[in-house]
Structures are given as structure tokens and as C-alpha cells.
Amino acid sequence: MADHITIRKAEGTWTVRAGGAVLGESQNALELSEGDYPSVIYFPRDDIAMAFLDQTDKVTHCPHKGDATYFSVVTKSQTLENTVWSYEAPKDGVARIKDHLAFYTSENIAVEKI
């Protein structure tokens, strides 16, 4: 793993909401810290209502984590494009985030410890 990346169990229970709907709640989330960036909470896929997510064609590459695939969140009132990402085949040093999803927070998406 890159020296500037740390992955640990996120303490407590975490939730993610979009458009007023709860997309997921987890006591098994991971917290990834990377250098000076804000920490990111990664939710296990099993704890997310995948029916709200549509995979898109967007792919980005991180030299430390690998290729990220993206999903849009579909709510009753809107589609939030490419607001979720996942590393389907992460590099060995960050393998713990496989089968996990992370969310860009905004006025429409909230990731909170409850």
C-alpha cells in the first residue's frame, strides 16, 4: 500500500442518504485516509440498496488504488450522475475496499455517522 493511504474500520454506524431516501446503513464501513485529502467512508455493497444505483460508463484511474467505476444515484425526483465510485479490482495494498462503495457528498447526498 502507498505510505500515504490508511484503511481502518470506521467506528460506529454510518448511513448514506440521497433525496431523502436512506440508501444504506452499516456498522462495517471502512474509513480510507489518503494524504491531506478528507477521509472517505466506504460502505460494503451488501449494506447499500443497489436498486437506487445505475452503473455508468465513467472510469478513472488512481495510481495507488487502481481503476474506479462509477454509479449514478436515481431518486424519485432526480438522477445524481456519477456520485458513487467503486474499485472493482483494487491494487493489492488497498484490497480491503473491494466490494465497497464510496459517495461524493453534496447538498443531495449525505454520509453521516449516527
Automatic annotation (TrEMBL):
Pfam families: NTP_transf_9
Domain of life: Bacteria
Limits of the DUF427 domain: 15-105
InterPro entries per record: DUF427, DUF427_sf
Protein name: DUF427 domain-containing protein
Species whose genome carries this gene: Tateyamaria armeniaca
